[in-house]
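Progress note, sequence design subtask.
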């Protein structure tokens, strides 16, 4: 859909092959244009309102020009052989530039309704805009009065093209590329400073984890169904996209002061990130590997001494020391090696969490149990106790001498998906796929309360 330059007309393209125009002020349909082949996925008004023309493209890869006075298609521009992804007009309205996933851009003479030049761009293009003649773009190789346009495509690169010579005059890789503003066909002068002004991300798919970040919770960091992390500034909704993981990120946790956080993913690794509190920029400072399967959960220490604990689908939990000192901004992330490893459960470890005083660790697993571990001076001592349902059983210490399991709590009939300590009371909460949330006493290892969420039970 798109608005005209007066913002009073709205054009929408549908999967039924029709285009409808709507009077936004009076709230009724003014036109119903028929004749497109298949789904109409692109519509754009001509910037000169006196022409009363609408341009559209559908699955047949043609560009149709509609006369809104007669509601008829007056011409079909044919050049692309794959989906047309953008339409951009020159400042004088006499030239149209179309981009497509066929790795070309076409420059059209709208008077002759013919293609003037085909520009090979060597990548599927998802968007394009025309540079206006009002600003100085000489730093990007734009010289003379010729028409230049910008493309963004599948390679994650912004390119500036000279339409007369079909030559690329400037290239800048993402995500540090300048911000684009295509309102009224003009580009914002922030192009000239080569800095990203603001980035908005609207489609996030599944949200797997979210945490507050920053000294006063000024940001949130979000793990979605992807290998990138998204950090949103709450005041402006501007977003940073953090690259590093190579598979879906499953869990994140933030250190007490809010300037550092950790993430873990299906790529069997975890990463440590640090935020510059002045600029708000986030950088990866360390990465760790050693698990043999996806890392499903990570927990940060709560007091000053810094360490991490991770839980994995390889049934183990690992403790990681933070590098000291941390590398400076711009340096390569340092490698972290696990200080301790223990086989903690019989199935996937879904969740780990550390108590507010750093003395206890809880883990929840697909084996239907939650376990409580005692941390001694930042390490795990030997395994002394397990607790099964309904009564406790004493077990021999582990040979590793690394862990001390204070209690293993049964009672859930399906996997335990989340464990969490209370910030004020000596209790532990566990949430399970059986639809129940249980509150456990840390001192007595007994269940204090059970809440059932029947409406969600059938989802698992």
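Output:
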């Amino acid at each position: 859909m798109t608005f005209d330059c007066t913002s009073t007309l709205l054009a929408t393209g549908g999967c039924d092959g029709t285009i409808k125009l709507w009077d936004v002020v009076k709230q009724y349909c003014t036109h119903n244009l028929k004749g497109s082949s298949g789904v109409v996925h692109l519509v754009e008004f001509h910037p000169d309102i006196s022409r009363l023309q609408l341009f559209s493209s559908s699955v047949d890869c043609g560009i149709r020009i509609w006369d809104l006075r007669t509601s008829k298609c007056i011409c079909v521009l044919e050049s692309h052989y794959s989906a047309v992804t953008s339409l951009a007009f020159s400042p004088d309205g006499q030239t149209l530039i179309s981009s497509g996933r066929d790795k070309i851009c076409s420059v059209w003479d709208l008077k002759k309704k013919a293609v003037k030049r085909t520009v090979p761009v060597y990548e599927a293009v998802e968007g394009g805009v025309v540079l206006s003649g009002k600003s100085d773009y000489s730093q990007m190789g734009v010289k003379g009065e010729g028409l230049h346009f910008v493309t963004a495509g599948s390679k994650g690169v912004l390119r500036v093209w000279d339409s007369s010579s079909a030559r690329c005059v400037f290239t800048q890789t993402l995500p540090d590329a300048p911000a684009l503003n295509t309102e009224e066909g003009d580009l914002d002068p922030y192009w000239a400073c080569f800095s990203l002004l603001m980035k908005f991300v609207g489609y996030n798919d599944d949200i797997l984890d979210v945490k507050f970040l920053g000294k006063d919770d000024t940001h949130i960091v979000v793990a979605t169904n992807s290998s990138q992390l998204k950090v949103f500034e709450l005041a402006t909704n501007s977003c940073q996209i953090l690259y590093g993981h190579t598979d879906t990120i499953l869990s994140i946790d933030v250190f007490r002061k809010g300037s550092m956080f950790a993430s873990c993913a299906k790529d069997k690794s975890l990463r440590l990130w640090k935020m510059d509190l002045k600029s708000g920029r986030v950088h990866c400072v360390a990465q760790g590997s050693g698990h043999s399967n996806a890392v499903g959960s990570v927990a940060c220490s709560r007091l000053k001494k810094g360490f991490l604990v991770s839980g994995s689908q390889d049934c183990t939990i690992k403790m990681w020391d933070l590098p000291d000192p941390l590398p400076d901004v711009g340096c390569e992330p340092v490698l972290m090696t696990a200080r301790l490893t223990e086989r903690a459960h019989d199935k996937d470890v879904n969740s780990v969490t550390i108590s507010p005083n750093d003395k206890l660790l809880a883990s929840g697993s697909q084996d239907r149990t939650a376990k409580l571990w005692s941390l001694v001076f930042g390490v795990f001592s030997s395994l002394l106790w397990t607790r099964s349902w309904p009564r406790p059983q004493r077990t021999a210490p582990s040979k590793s001498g690394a862990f001390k399991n204070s209690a293993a709590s049964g009672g859930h009939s399906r996997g335990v998906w989340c464990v969490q300590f209370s910030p004020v009371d000596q209790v532990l909460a566990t949430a399970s796929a059986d639809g129940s949330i249980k509150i456990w006493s840390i001192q007595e290892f007994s269940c204090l309360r059970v809440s059932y969420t029947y409406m969600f039970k059938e989802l698992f």
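The domain at 1-78 is CATH 2.40.10 (Thrombin, subunit H). Work on this subtask will continue into the next period as scheduled.
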